[in-house]
Amino acid sequence: MEPTVSFFSGFAPKDLLFLGEAALRTMWISVLSISIGTLLGVVFGWILYEGKWAAALTVAPILDIFRSVPLIIQLVLFYNFAPIVGLNLDPFASGVVILTIYTASLVANVARGGIEAVEPPMRRAARSLGMSYWQDLRHVVLPIGGRAVFPAWVGVALGVMKDSALVSVLGYVELLKASQILITRTQEPFLILSIAGAFYFALSYPISRYAASLERKWAQ
Amino acid sequence: MFDYNFHWRPVMKSLPDLLEASLLTLQVAVLAMILGIIIGLCLALIRLNMRGPLRWIASTWVELARNTPALFQLFFFGFGLGAFGLHLSPYMIVLAGLTFNCAGYLAENFRGGFQAVPDTQIRASRSLGMNAWQAYTRIVIPQVFRIVYHPITNQMVWAVLMSSLGMLVGFRELSGETQFFASRTFRIFEYFAVTAVIYYVIVKLILGASRLLATRLFRY
Known about the structure:
Helix content of chain A is 80%, strand content 0%.
């Protein structure tokens, strides 16, 4: 058979596998950072709520810095700062550290909002039923406040998942970096970027729709 | 532990250049916000009031902007359009990418704002003899503006932070300029530390100005 010149000359099916693996790496770094960051963020949120002025003077400004400096600058800064203090971190570890702190700084506000969403009379009622402070937090504040801010948390989590694309500046081969590598080789920017975009969209869109439908259901 | 000598002098020497570049950052962010507000308003009105292909385009725009990374969107305007022979300058890439992103996010905010104003108010103003244009500009828009004022401020901050991605498409705004100097002198940490401070100050200035403006605008 005569070899035909294909429109997608450089792009082979196995490249799709390469992109798929990169998408898995995007998911892995996101899941790791979001879960640790959320736990940290909830603790910070609780500190912000209970700490009053002490927390407003200490924890709040530090968290604020991570929200006011572009993530990409934070990543470059930390990646170049770690060796100064004798830490040898690979791009993945640096990415996870910064994404985790970044997530925590965003979740802290969400978590504080969640605690504030539970009205004091309800908490007093819980305490007067004989619940301890921690029981009140665990069995009253968590389910009610958590529900109130769940959509906001999903927004933060999806934002971090998308922002994980920035770890590519450190050289970690996640989805966007992988697509750049393929573009350099195949010179098919439109096709490959479309595939990468479709991957991101497929990760993000169903979750955001699900969260929106949950929000509607709970609002009733 | 610290066998690293910090060299701040080269950074201080290029500080005027960095500050000039931060004006470029502000310029592109403000332009993107102005365009984003206009387009976002159109997208929101189309999604609320129209059917057919126009509504489909608006929905696709919003969902794509919200569910893919901003960096991906920049790459798309940078390399993706190159496939069609459309080569934008780095400035235009960042402006187009930021505008696309901001318009998508703002459209959702505007939609929420419009939905928060009850239909009955429009009918009431129409029955008072106002035409549709008057009803919108005098009754609906002022109320919507109050609702979306805070999200717009947030989006402005995001636009400034997002413009730092310009460094990855060769745009010499604050981050790009920083990277340029850092790669010439190898004082990467020092340069990016100063840049982080500049970004922090810019963000604080925006938030402060917005708060000041809000007390003037929403006095009654």
